[in-house]
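Q: My labmate handed me this sequence with no annotations at all. I'd like to see what the chain might look like in three dimensions before we decide whether it's worth expressing. Could you predict it?
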Amino acid sequence: MEKTPEFYKYYPMLFERYFKFSNQTTLKILSKAGFDYYNAVLCLDDIIDNKNFNKISRMLAFQGESIKLLTHVFGVNSQFWNFWDERKKEYFEATKIEKSFLKKKNVDFESYKDLADKKSAFGKIAIDSLFVLDKREDKKTYNSLIKSHKYFSIGFQLYDDVKDFKEDFKNGQFNFAIFKLQKLIDFDQYNQNLVTLHKLLFVKKIAQKILAKSIEQFEKSIEILSNLNTKSTWLKTVVEIKKTIEGYLEITNGYMATIEAKVKLKSHQGHTHSFFEYEQLEDLTVAKALDFIEFDFNQNYVDLKHVMFLGKFDGFYNNNPIHVSDIFQRAILNDCFISVAKKYGFDISVFLKNECSFIVNLRNKDNIGGWSYFPTVQEIAADIDDLGQILQLFTLSKNSQLIERYCSKTISIALKECVTKNGGIETWIIPKENQTNVQKRQEHFNTTKWGKGPDVEVVANFIYSLMIVNKKGYEKVIKNAISYILKQQNDKGYWESRWYYGKWYGTYVCLRLLKEYENIYKKEIKKALEYITKKQNIDFGYSVSKKDESDPLSTAFVVLSLKLYAENNMLMIDNAIMYLISNQNQDGSWRAVDFIRPKASDPYRSKTLTTGYVLKAICS
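A: Here is what I predict for the chain of 620 residues:
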């Protein structure tokens, strides 16, 4: 029932525009009868497939209520019952066919289509019932609707078979996706491992081919309906589900394309400089972590990079739907290296100079400058978060001369065009007037997809960078922004992030900014620290959310926050660091944790970035 489409509850109403009969009371009764019988069928499936005989009484109750309602509408002598008997026969034939398919070595697509059509027999009763009530005997429209329903049912079943692969495999049910995969590989070779088999369904491109077939069936249904009433709810439903499947197919293709891109990245030389020396480092925890990061550096930072698929289905039009970037991540990681080098006294100035040059070469070449998170996506503007992180790198690595040359103009535009009345600053750096065509497109995406408005964690990161660049020169902007940031503090004491998972990153960057003004904002800082002290888990770590176990990234952000105000928090800090050290992986890394959330259900996470933040937390 959790997967039941909403329209199943009012199925007969999908077809009312094709018939003259439109009595809403009767349509509601038919809808209730149809949904009751649908529930009876679900119970029957559970009884047949899982021997769940406890469902028999429930099945009979649903069946009885459905028949009672239908008898109220049609009486006992209506030709409707002829349709009813035919549909029942079709459905029970489908159950026999489905069982027989489990024993067959070959199932052709025509037989599968026949199965899908017959499995949906009770759905066709919605059309049958309106045809009988209409009394016009418009068989042409009726036959067209039945045919459109057939193609819809085949398409929907194909889609379901991809989505229900795991469930059907566990239950031993026939599934076209499982059948096709079995024809291609030996399941025993993979020890019947469901997780591996599910991955292979996509790696072998079987899922994609089945989804494409599904879309073809929906297109056939739409073609038939386009010659009938084009304003019907049925046509709208078929079109919407087709779009859903197209989106799922694009997501699937995108996921596979990102994996392929990561494989290619490993063989591509992305650096013209070497990693820094740390051979004399005696702290094994830190040395092993740097070993892991250096390995990823030599693999073209493939783990650090954010690889994302942004296709035409979502409205993106670029030369390539695959986009790869690590600008923001490298700026963060290099900041972490600075903390390590400072603690252990080794020189990484040459490495940092090369990294700064690398980042400079990736700046936008338009009239705004700055950096975009994905430079190859024309719909993404430069933003103050990337700018802020890079300003911090240039300043802390003692390459401040780069700021005047490559950042000053962008800062000026951001402060002139993007400051809001409440002291916040828009994330995206786009002029309000005289926008280019690209900027107009970016503005459209900001409004419709990415979202506009200041984001508190982004403002805090950017304002912190202005403070360390020139506190006095930006004093007014800093003061107004802090006023905005304080108003965004949750009553419990933390700051929620928009672009980052959990509470701890936003809380950290806000507390980092307030550190410079701790004598002024004692109350707000105390409130945040009190919240942090209440949320430490039994293992001394912290979690990205209530339901999750402790993780190294959340714990690192908390340690960084507490170290800013260490006087009264040393025991908590020591315990949290103990958690971090005890959870280091054998290869020197810490596990990847969801960090950046560019869009729903598509998080950026990286073992390299988590490892960098943990190093910063330990070494600061």
